[in-house]
Write a structure and sequence with these properties.
The complex is a heterodimer.
Chain A: H1 2-7, H2 28-52, E1 74-76, H3 92-96, E2 102-108, E3 120-128, H4 137-141, E4 147-149, E5 164-165, H5 167-171
Antiparallel strand pairs in A: 1-4, 2-3, 3-5
Chain B: H1 15-47, H2 63-72, H3 84-102, E1 106-113, E2 116-121, H4 129-149, H5 153-184, H6 189-194, H7 206-219, H8 231-234, H9 244-269, H10 282-303, H11 309-337
Antiparallel strand pairs in B: 1-2
Helix pairs in contact in B: 1-9, 1-10, 2-9, 3-4, 3-9, 4-5, 5-7, 5-11, 7-9, 7-11, 9-10
The chains are: A alpha+beta, B mainly alpha.
Chain lengths: 185, 338
């Protein structure tokens, strides 16, 4: 920076000097050669993309696999051995839901014909998918792992009414329409 | 009264042969143009690592049909402030100028077909390339009229730009073609092709070829010289107010002109119909060379960004014109000396 002070003696502090880097002067034979060379380089770059082949995922036919922890449409679960519902109608999921999209109406279990494993069960369990923000808080709040987030994301529909998922729909095994990523992917 | 100075015709034929020939050329080229539109989109897609249209028909090859049907089905409206007759004349002139030049593109030498000899070209006029310049410059009347008669500032700006572009590049284009003409010693396009018997003119005239191609991009209003229609700043330039098949005509003319310029470049620099094999393969070679050059058009479009207006002018007047002039002087000197 000493050299800078010699060239600009009015500068008190050499740190104030801003060195601007300019490109080479345009025009002239050199400039023409440079323009030609750079154009050729650009043409080569684009042609290389042709040989790389398309990167497009042809969506409705091909799908990008989802990760195992992907938060898609909810699922309600049953015990595998007794076929009883895991949900006991405690409404903790509804309380945790920031979008207020879960409605639970609990009812007492009939000992002769049990629906769930606990004292009570969810007579009505509805999730309004139009309001759900897929945050996964319901899954975290559930003390019995009765509700989890699935992998399905193609839940668009024509009517808002159709987006209110009932307990039967959530309990039913959803069609696994979306590929899952493998461990190392 | 002296007769009008009419251009000589290299190879005279019966008029019905001429009509059949022109119909065949017209039909073949107009079958190629729609394919070019979809191929361009697919090629551009590949350049950008995507597929391009692939939904309509096999590999999307029916896309131009869908496009054309859509355009034809649209209402033929015209803006309130337009000048109706001139406004409608614009696209007609543009297509007309492109189609006329097809007449002189040579697709092959004189062949024996059936009982008589037939030249595989529309007409072999002695003024050849002047014919091309006369009619390709016509296209700019179309753009200018269309742009002005639209009664819209964007259209007018686009039209003015296209006029400026024409003046800047037409000269270097003509000068670039002067090199091969000087070597061939004839203006007739068949004559030019025949004089490339030993070596294609791209070898001694590589500079002229580059100048011609660059000027050709500008002539067709193609990237990187698509200033007249610059979507970003002028909406679509002179096409802004056009819709339906009138807009389609402009698009058709653009591809037609691209095809014609490529054909001329193939004729003048790549040996035209010359190629191995018997005579009836000539049109195939010509078509192959033309399409290869059309691919270069797509390639350049996929690569180079649009020039700024002053850069366009600077390139035209400060680079292309001196280079083309120098090429002509050197060629003329060498032709005289050798």
């Amino acid at each position: 920076m000493a050299a800078a002070n010699e060239r600009f003696p009015y500068l008190e502090n050499a740190d104030e000097l801003v060195v601007v880097q300019r490109g080479p002067e345009p025009g002239g034979l050199k400039g023409a050669y440079r323009a030609f060379r750079e154009t050729a380089r650009g043409m080569k770059t684009t042609l290389a993309r042709v040989f790389e082949g398309p990167k497009t995922v042809q969506y409705p036919e091909e799908k990008t696999p989802v990760y195992p922890r992907f938060r898609g449409r909810h699922k309600l679960h049953r015990f595998e051995d007794t076929e009883l519902e895991k949900c006991v109608g405690c409404s903790l999921c509804a309380a945790a839901c920031p979008a207020d999209c879960i409605r639970v109406v609990a009812a007492e279990n009939d000992p002769a014909d049990r629906v769930s494993a606990g004292e009570r069960y969810a007579a009505v369990y509805e999730i309004n998918m139009a309001r759900c923000i897929f945050c996964g808080y319901c899954e975290v709040a559930c003390p019995f792992d009765a509700i989890t987030m699935g992998h399905e994301y193609e839940i668009a529909d024509y009517n808002r009414e159709d987006l209110i998922f009932t307990k039967e729909m959530l309990l039913a095994e959803p069609l696994e329409r979306n590929p899952l990523r493998t461990e190392d992917e | 009264m002296t007769p009008l100075p009419v251009a000589e015709v290299g190879f005279a034929e019966a008029s019905w042969v001429m009509i059949v020939k022109s119909l065949v050329i017209f039909a073949v080229v107009f079958a190629i143009i729609p394919v070019l539109t979809v191929v361009e989109r697919k090629v551009l897609g590949r350049f950008q690592a995507r597929y391009g249209p692939n939904r309509v028909g096999i590999h999307g090859m029916m896309q131009p049909l869908a496009d054309a049907l859509k355009l034809i089905g649209k209402e033929a409206f015209s803006p309130n402030r337009s000048v109706p007759l001139l406004w409608a004349l614009g696209p007609i002139l543009v297509v007309f100028s492109g189609v006329t030049v097809l007449a002189i593109l040579p697709w092959g030498n004189v062949q024996e077909i059936g009982s008589g000899d037939v030249g595989l070209y529309g007409i072999d006029v002695s003024v050849g390339i002047l014919f091309f310049f006369a009619f390709s410059a016509f296209a700019f009347y179309g753009l200018l009229l269309g742009g002005w008669a639209s009664g819209s500032k964007y259209s007018f700006l686009g039209a003015m730009r296209s006029a400026a572009q024409l003046i800047s590049y037409e000269i270097s284009m003509a000068l670039a073609l002067l090199g091969p003409i000087l070597i061939a010693g004839t203006l007739s396009l068949t004559g030019v092709v025949e004089s490339q018997d030993t070596v294609w003119f791209i070898v001694p005239q590589i500079v002229a070829f580059l100048v011609f191609m660059v000027a050709g991009f500008a002539e067709c209003n193609r990237a990187p010289f698509d200033l007249p229609e610059a979507e970003a700043e002028l909406v679509a330039g002179y096409q802004t107010e056009y819709g339906g098949m009138r807009f389609g005509s402009f698009m058709l003319a653009e591809y037609l002109e691209m095809f014609v310029i490529s054909g001329l470049a193939a004729t003048f620099f790549l040996g035209g119909w010359m190629g191995p094999g018997p005579g009836f393969l000539d049109p195939l070679w010509m078509l192959l060379k033309t399409l290869a050059l059309v691919f270069v058009f797509f390639w350049v479009r996929a690569t180079l960004p649009r020039l700024r207006y002053d850069q366009l002018m600077a390139l035209g007047w400060k680079v292309m014109l001196p280079v083309a002039t120098l090429n002509v002087i050197v060629t003329a000197t060498l032709v005289t000396v050798l």
